[in-house]
What does this fold into?
Amino acid sequence: MNARTPPDYGRNVFINCPFDDDYLPVFRAITFTVTLCGFQARCALEVQDAGEVRLLKILRLVRESRLGIHDISRTELDRENCLPRFNMPFELGICVGATHFGGRIHMQKRTLILDIERYRYQKFLSDIAGQDIKSHRNDPRMAISVTRDWLNECQPFKMLPGGRDVSRQYERFCRDLPAMLKSIRLHESEISFLDWRRLVEQWLKESEA
It folds into this structure.
């Protein structure tokens, strides 16, 4: 590990996904699963620094994360501009390039690629043919199961709880969430990515107590 690689490189999971309201339930379910499984969820929303160029932020997150979850499902045309979103495939390409050209430490990177349907990518991103694309069908429970199974393969040291158990714990967390928000005087509409991650961490810690 070189001097520029953080000590938590091995447990950092870079989440590259849409940030719109329609995708939010899946995004939050994935973040919960990553945290419950003992990893650290990272994404571009964690730092709102206008002084950091967005591309440089993405490059830093890729460099600091051994694992990456990339959802390429957002292919619809934007209602205002009638154009698709290319950010997710672009960031996936950065991670793939880092794996091959980033030096020995980055050869350890592992990637999970998600889409609504497993083979739909062949119609718009055929260059990744041969990759094992996983489907979540916009269902948070499916996203939880797929993410859990992949994380279980990424670390050989301990057995993770099954996808059904993680889903049940997520349902409990969601039931407890309103009371948690009330206790810290935070409205649900104000929850940032860091807020969500900290709420999950707090709930897991209290559940184990």
User: Anything to note?
Assistant: The radius of gyration is 17 Å. The longest strand covers residues 110-115. The beta strands are 12-16, 40-42, 67-71, 110-115, 134-135.
